[in-house]
TrEMBL record, chains A, B:
InterPro entries: MoaB/Mog-like_dom_sf, MoaB/Mog_dom, MoeA-like, MoeA_C_domain_IV, MoeA_C_domain_IV_sf, MoeA_linker/N, MoeA_linker/N_sf. Catalyzes the insertion of molybdate into adenylated molybdopterin with the concomitant release of AMP. CDD domains: MoeA (cd00887). It catalyses: adenylyl-molybdopterin + molybdate = Mo-molybdopterin + AMP + H(+). Keywords: Magnesium, Metal-binding, Molybdenum, Molybdenum cofactor biosynthesis, Transferase. This is Molybdopterin molybdenumtransferase. Residues 198-336 form the MoaB/Mog domain. Pathway: Cofactor biosynthesis; molybdopterin biosynthesis. Its EC number is 2.10.1.1.
Length: 430, 430
């Protein structure tokens, strides 16, 4: 038996581990990347690294929700359609301004939406139910309805009390969170750092995107796809190009890149083929291989190694396997680094929308898309699911997780779906 | 009756129109913003402005999905556990390389995953089922199983034929679409231009985010929130700051800004209050007001005007109304400008997760969040739904659309939910 064969056989010894075990092993080395301060103008989709606490009550004062007249409700207790009650309008107050003095019985203040209720007033009569008139340079207002104390008044602190934690750290900053940051005076906000994720493609067969197709070759699509997945997960892509076939050049390139990044992804080169250099690179790097075979399809050869607390993800060169491997193992590590409190993709119980008759001895992750019907959530395969089919990925927003077994699955079966474009997440993989 | 009153009364004349009519009116003026060419490295979440067509079949040649030996299946027809068949291994072919000559009967080629099947071969035996040996400097391979023609061969064009439209224009570029662009050799791609959306806040009560809280005042949160919503929708924010109260200054600022942007948003100033300048600004601009009152809550005062084919969105100053008004009326206009084929938020039939007992004469949009239970999709109110409550928005990823009527709604009721963080969209509002 020649040397190459011995290596191949050695590689055949790989022991597949269950998906959940693989995720657990990887996440043991996932770490928080620390914080940085960013301007509120650049905080979208960053992860809060501090709780947002109400630095004042909301509203900070008794506030009018409408344009109208602030008055004492008691003054209207005799009002009726036959008995108009007239008030002296002593001043008007716009939002952002305050009344100059408390009102007395029989007085009203013309008040705008969002303005502070003058002292002494306890309700607001909307313009629509009031008649106004001027007499001798004085303004009057007449009302024919009874008002209740507190009517059309938003009480100070009724929405939020001072000191309430409104959003917890670890939360994605969406437009609503950003509004809160502005409300409570955060011109800058502490967020989790985004990891720099290094990326190499491997494969002699790979042409660059601007090269003409050549016999036996295909264009490199994985690197572009993974770059987009890294961005979607919140990482910063550092693309190092294609690894050469030569071991020493390859080893050196990986070593240099690994020093510059927070984690490193390679696509391809992890199988048992003669040209799959990654296993030997891990060995020479003295990286600890956490696993090199997973009981799943596609992506069984996905390999993750660790060195000095940093992770190296050896994703398959097969586009679908690469895609799935990233979302299962790399995504939560990026999320954890960024400080996301719930770093795993949200996994839901959905209804299978189409038959998937092919049984599989291993857990299968079928690329799918979520759709809805009358209160039900369904997930259907996005297209052909041969593991090499790149075209299916365009429609994918979920992975259908089908347990291994001897039977296929039928439309209507309960299945688990992993949501890929949902920012909710969950705290555990299961 | 004084002048101000007359204006107010005139404004009271506003006729509420149904939400659907309002959307239709706005979308009559929504237009596609044209295309631009971007690098594949910067195409994430842009909108395809050209179909992606397969410029070659996929795979472009008969391909091996595994490492193994390519051979003629016919040569194995006598093979069995008692009858090993031996092949002369004439060469090895890695992915990206080609065999130097067609194989003959009795010959095999060692082949790597992704490599082209040599001419003359019609199946691939995986390494795992083959024994190899060297004799007199020649390589041999022995197999004890029968192979079938086509076994472990991915046929040329089996995934995609030359000329197939794989992704239609108007689609959001996700990681899978990006992979396709790379596969078919798009170093640049034609995408829809992103609109520049101008933004003004109005309101004397508004403090900047870095100002200390003052009596009667609140910090400006709408501008920051809307900026994040514009970004989420795919627009480019151009923030002009706070409008002054003075009409002439205000009018000039709006006129100048309007000339620089593709559409303009103002928040606040559209009500019937004395300080609500927007209606008069529209008038002086000679803009056509499409509507200034909508039969909905919150956001009934949402005003949209048009001038020279450009839209001015007068959103409410109330945070929730502002948020909802943007998502219903501005979002689809931004999407249409960017070239999205399905410019409206996806609307689904969901199950109400919690009671919402308060009846409302008008259609109500309650901020909510989507959750799932055993194949069901539920939507629950995100918190208190007083129209001024900003805190609720942080948890919002959907709007619950409750029709107007005399009764409230109970958990378990079928309701419509508008998904705010879903890139699927739909072609019509209904």
């Amino acid at each position: 038996m020649c040397d190459t064969e011995r290596i191949v056989d050695m590689k055949f010894d790989r022991k597949p581990i269950p998906v959940t075990d693989a995720v657990t092993k990887v996440m043991e080395y996932a770490r928080f990347g620390g914080t940085e301060e960013v301007s509120i103008n650049e905080c979208e989709n960053r992860i809060l690294a501090e709780d947002i606490t109400a630095s004042h009550p909301i509203p900070p004062f008794h506030k009018s929700p409408y344009d109208g007249f602030a008055l004492k409700a008691e003054d209207t207790k005799e009002a009726g359609s036959d008995n108009p009650v007239t008030f002296h309008v002593i001043e008007q107050v716009g939002a952002g301004h305050r009344a100059s003095r408390p009102i007395e019985s029989g007085e009203a203040v013309r008040i705008m939406t969002g303005a502070e209720i003058p002292e002494g007033a306890d309700c607001v009569a909307m313009f629509e139910i009031c008649q106004t008139q001027e007499e001798n340079g004085k303004s009057y207002m007449t009302i024919k309805r009874q008002m209740e104390e507190g009517q059309n008044v938003i009480e100070k602190g009724s929405e939020t009390s001072h000191g309430d934690v409104l959003v917890e750290k670890g939360t994605n900053i969406n437009p609503g969170v950003k509004a809160l940051l502005a409300t409570f005076g955060y011109p800058t906000v502490k967020v989790g750092r985004r990891p720099v994720v290094g990326l190499f493609a491997t494969g002699t067969e790979l042409l660059d995107v601007d090269e003409k197709l050549q016999p036996g070759k295909i264009r490199n699509s994985n690197a572009y796809m993974i770059a987009a997945q890294i961005e979607r997960a919140g990482g910063i892509v550092k693309y190092y190009g294609k690894l050469e076939d030569d071991f020493d050049t390859c080893y050196q390139a990986v070593t240099n890149a690994f020093a510059e990044v927070d984690m490193l992804i390679t696509t391809g080169g992890v199988s048992v083929g003669d040209f799959d250099l990654m296993p030997e690179i891990y060995e020479k790097l003295e990286a600890q291989v956490l696993f090199n075979k997973i009981a799943m399809r596609p992506g069984s050869v996905t390999t993750v190694a660790e060195k000095d607390g940093k992770l190296l993800f050896g994703l398959s060169g097969n586009p679908s396997a690469c895609y799935v491997g990233f979302e299962l193992y790399t995504f939560p590590v990026i999320q954890r680094y960024s400080g996301v409190a719930k770093p795993y993709h949200r996994k839901i119980a959905a209804i299978l929308g189409k038959d998937f008759p092919k049984p599989n001895p291993f857990t299968r992750f079928v690329r799918g898309y979520i759709h809805y019907e009358e209160g039900k959530v369904l997930v259907s395969p996005a297209g052909m699911d041969k593991s090499a089919v790149v075209t299916t990925l365009a429609n994918t927003d979920a992975l259908i997780m089908l347990p291994g077994g001897t039977r296929g699955f039928a439309a209507g079966n309960a299945v688990q779906a992993i949501l890929l474009e949902d920012s909710t997440g969950q705290a555990t993989f299961e």
